[in-house]
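Recap quiz, item 2
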Amino acid sequence: MTMAEMRRITLTVNGEAREAEVETRLTLADFLRRELGLTGTHLGCEHGVCGACTVLVDGRSARSCLMLAVQAEGAKVETVESLAAKDGALHPLQEAFRDHHGLQCGFCTPGMLMTLKELLADSPDPTEEEVRTAISGNLCRCTGYQGIVDAALDAARRIREGAS
Amino acid sequence: MKPPPFSYHAPESIEDTVGLLASLENAKLLAGGQSLMPMLNMRYAQPDHLIDLNRVDGLGFIREEAGGLTIGAMTRQREVEFSPLIDRLCPLLAEALPLIGHRQTRNRGTVGGSLAHSDGAAEIPTVAAALDATLTVIGPNGRRDVAYADFPAGYLMTALGWDELLVSIHLPAWGAGHGYAFEEFARRHGDFAIVSAAALIEAGADGTIARAALALGGMGAAPVRARKAEAALTGRPGGAETIQAAAEHCLGLEAQDDVHAPAAYRRKLAAVLARRALARAWERACARGGA
Amino acid sequence: MSRAPYPEAPRRIEDPALLRGAGRYIDDIRLPGMLEAAFVRSPHAHAKIGAIDAEAARALPGVHAVLTRADILPHLQSEFLVVGLPSPAYKQQRDRPALAGAETVHVGEPIAVVIAENRYIAEDAAQLVMADYDILPAVSDCRAALEPDAAPVHLGAPDNLIAEFNVEYGDVDAAFAAAPHVLSESFALHRGGGHSIECRGAVAAHDAATDLLTLWVSSQMPHSAHRLLIDMLGRDENRIRVVTPDIGGGFGPKLVVYPEDVVVSVAAVMLGRPVKWIEDRREHFVATTQERDQFWEMEVAADADGRLLGLRGTMVHEHGAYTARGINLPQNSAESVPGTYVLPSYRMNTRVALTNKVPVTPVRGAGHPQAVFVMERLLDRVAGAVGLDRAEVRRRNFVPAEAMPYERPLKTRGGLPVVLDSGDYPKCQEAALSAADWAGFPARREAARAEGRRIGMGLANFAKGTGRGPFEAVTVRVGTSGRVHVYTGATAIGQGTKTMLAQIVAAQLGGDIANVTVTTGDTAATALGIGTSNSRVTVTAGTSAHVAATKVREKALATAAAMLEVPAAELEIAGEEIRPRPAGGRIPNVKVTLAQVAHALNGTPGYSLPGGIGPGLEASENVVLDSPAYASGTAVAEVEVDAETGGVRLLNYVLAFDSGRIINPMMAAGQAIGGTAHGIGNALFERMAYDENAQPLTTSFADYLLITAREMPRVTVISCESPSPLNPLGVKGIGECGVVPAAPAIASAIEDALAPLGVRVSSAPIGPPEILALIEAAHTKA
């Protein structure tokens, strides 16, 4: 195998239609980071344990290091860059992370946020245990998770109160 | 850790998939990617061809069939987890599914992918073993059914021919009031089981155990049915004494050594988890079956 | 629960960018023409290296170069990374080469590097590089390494003893001879890797026009890298710049300068293209430094009241194959055993052994967790022998608050006396015990036992030197824009360096941290710098920042006083304005801005400067702090043990810590909890396993276990503030406080839960199979 095998893909990323020609072995994570310049999604292990690469694919959290870009053909992908509003206002999750010290080095944070976005969409009033279970696939070496859990519970409350 | 180069194929029908398998050498099938992609990223697998099953029609379904549950191989684990059918038709699977990895794993991971990857510590193979599942496989010579007991064929190997595709799994249902329990011991939430125990019990009208199945995961390359334990349960009066004696048979099972646990520990754990699973299954059988 | 429990703590200035995914980590750096590297690494723990065949690799389309030692030598003034912290105790010098030559001494050692269009192709080519290996015996166990018949870790070495030293004071043997209680115990301690979620990485770019080599590196110590590159590349300080991007965690191993950093730099110069190398997780397991084994044989002598009379013992410390930092780890361990206690006599002999594994350098805690484990477990033994409550035996041995500052007859590695500067250990322990309900626990334990549940509680105390000197560089400068700029040699690895410094500086210059920008870890911004390690930044950089900001404040006020014709003592700085303090309800309408003062002090040709202090609204400080500020604390852990599986669950955890005056309580609590998570990992989960041929066995996150949110208990954090007299702010470090006492507190709790069985936990980490084995051994004995 000497020539790189390429394929054309079209997909939606953060609400925008994107088209690109990619090598078939390019992972979705590397496509987002390298081809689209969306470097918010991070690589921590590339074997599906740390969760730093978590994005939403058709609304469902997925480890983008375990998907090929070509598999995202026709899909709707959301990364951390889509959380803040167009005017720059932070998402309630992001505000809550600021308020509760839910991040230190920030490397696991984008993955955490996307996992929590999915959780709160499915469970608007989660218990602490449900939050911890939801983020058990996202490793953090800095925080000991407590600030993240507090932020998630507070964000859930703010979203519920905002919606009512 | 980037994947090696391969030729990528995305067939849209089972027929095309079988055709590709028959014509390509050194090809691997890509299902949910939760097991294969790490292997590709680490270059433990270096196939010349990758056949992506995610666009193949007709492999994603959950149906009530022949008194049991038939699940298409490419059905996402998440879909099964939230299906209204499994609580009624396969509550053992319902209890095991949330233990598989994490949300992200189950959003992409498939039932067939887990079975075809065939890790002896994985939850779906262990449930398949307990239920005597039947796997339907298709190849150039047509369809065939394989009893789950005949499916695992060594470390990460199965009875699937290199030109065959797993199409679906049929999980026969146990009686309406049967008891079930899935017990797992893992180091962290979401990890592979060090040892797991899948127990099924049907209570007889007279307080005896009419039928019992016990499968242990994590003991070796494939989940193992604890036949001696099962024999020590069937026909006996249900209760702690019978269960304890039956569980102790697990001490004689073969077990693997690895960096997480030595064989001797696994055997002891098997007996403990078997006892706990059987106890819960019996309790459920009494409550649901009204024995 | 809005912002509880620290509603007043300023929110971090680092956060908005990181939350948006707009952080700029090493792998986010992309330069025109940039190539990517992949290293070829030794698959053997010990082997001679013969010919390296890179022909097929070089021929692969997209490959620009494959470099071996022979290729890079002409571009190096010296080929070894000579980094060892000085000590008279060394018996051998074992420095890492930039690329291995005739011999490789650990799995993962870099042998060659592939530079290609992208990492995918680089890995394809790396697979094709074939080296001839002549496999040699490898040494895996550090005790076996010191046996007379042990194979040499390095060919031709007389033995595997790289260092030996003794720490001693008081008449230990007399103390033991007279002691009513003499107990002995062996401890097997293992720590693991740093495993920041971001691995290492470096990007090097050489600008031929200016002959400036810039190295971006995910490093805790860019100035160390700068100094080493100056030596190795033969370039002077003006022609190399080392700068840190955002860093996704450090935890110790990123303070080391690595062969990869040197090779990437050389490659960029050789190829005339920027070169990026990003470590992947599998590489992190075999090529990034770790802490590993220590084996202790200890004896403790105590009197009839449980007071310590003496401690003596020996320790073997695993060093790995090379010196990548020094022997500071075993020195830390040997020095810090006395901890928070009065210890009349002490003798430790420490031998440091080479093994055929990746080098050992500090991981968060840096040798202190092991020392604390030893002392705390021995105190539990004394409590048992004398029949005392475990908390009471500690009370009887504490250095009392009134004795501070308390000098031990010990010296640090730099030859300075060990002086506990401040702390109220009894008060801190009491706070922790109270929060954990230590007094009420026996009743709860019995009630649980009646239900068939085994729960236990344990405690551990620690004192840890923080703020290691000699200084940290800080420049505070108010620009003509009116913005306050802080430049420091300290680095930011997630602990909130920028917010902490902004708070300290803003306190002197207007109070608005949003008006302060902080630049960390850039050799172009500060010529001097040490970096981040040892929980040193708040103490060293904080002190320099405070002194510098205070000087800038004085200058600003003096200048404004001259400009406004108001005495400086009547002026205040609020936001970006300098104006008279409001008096009697009158709001003054004369003011001058920081920007205007900065303009004035930048000077106008021919005009005198106002204020009389001199040019520039800035100050640079490198405040020398030689003595560490000792943080301390008490951890109390509550566990449940499943005696049938050996499984351990953490039910509750309290950490009362004393890091002196706290600048940002929210960030301090985050450090305490994060450190605790790491400590729980060291207690129960994290082991970097090797086989008898020094082949690593745990090389992925599936095998090496970092805890998840489900295993982590909620931690109650209590801050007991005993200001340090050693610096003007009274601060101490906090980053390592959580990790240091965790393992012994948990070990003690496990023993308490299994108390009727008489199980003893004298190793860490300890997993379910070991716990079950201990339970069974206890049953057999009974």
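The mean pLDDT of chain C is 96.
The interface with chain B takes residues 119-120, 123-124, 127, 280-282, 644-647, 685, 689, 697-698, 700, 702-703, 705, 707-708, 710-711, 767-769, 772-773 of chain C (CB under 8 Å).
End of item.
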